[in-house]
């Protein structure tokens, strides 16, 4: 397994910042109040966790689609089909209130991690992909879980 390229690691961690912000504003009411007054209610707490979480889960469908372009025959067909699942999951299941939506996002990110590992097993991802995805998924799941607890 090769090391995660520095730029991919930094940008991946930067992508976790909105999740961390959402969790922190759930944990600390004063930060929530400041964020709401300075940034608006769309950018604090559960709202940012669910909204941003849905965007990123859908974005990851596109990443998987790109990996599927490296496959041939039946693996390509299956890869394309499976790549649509995270976006469809978000579309059909994320909603119905913040708590329900967050639980479905947690399930969606766990499923996405399974797909990441499958595409890696098929040899469609860079060698470092699963290391990056394991780290980022753990951080995202921690933030989503903290958002539920507070």
From TrEMBL:
One Pfam family linked to the record: DUF3429
InterPro entries hit by this protein: DUF3429 (IPR021836)
TM spans (from-to): 49-68, 75-95, 101-120, 132-149
Keyword terms, alphabetized: Membrane, Transmembrane, Transmembrane helix
The keyword Transmembrane helix is assigned to this record: yes
Name assigned to this protein: DUF3429 domain-containing protein
Organism: Meridianimarinicoccus marinus
């Amino acid at each position: 397994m090769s090391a995660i390229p520095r730029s991919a690691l930094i940008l991946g961690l930067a992508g976790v910042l909105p999740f961390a912000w959402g969790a922190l504003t759930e944990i600390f009411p004063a930060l929530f109040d400041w964020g709401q007054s300075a940034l608006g209610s769309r950018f604090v707490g559960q709202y940012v966790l669910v909204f941003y979480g849905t965007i990123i889960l859908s974005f990851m469908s596109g990443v998987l689609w790109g990996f599927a372009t490296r496959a041939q025959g039946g693996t390509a067909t299956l890869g394309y089909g499976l790549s649509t699942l995270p976006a469809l999951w978000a579309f059909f299941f994320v909603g119905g209130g913040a708590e329900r939506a967050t639980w479905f996002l947690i399930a969606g990110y766990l499923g996405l991690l399974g797909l990441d590992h499958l595409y890696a097993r098929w040899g469609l991802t860079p060698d470092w992909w699963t290391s990056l995805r394991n780290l980022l998924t753990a951080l995202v799941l921690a933030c989503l879980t903290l958002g539920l607890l507070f």
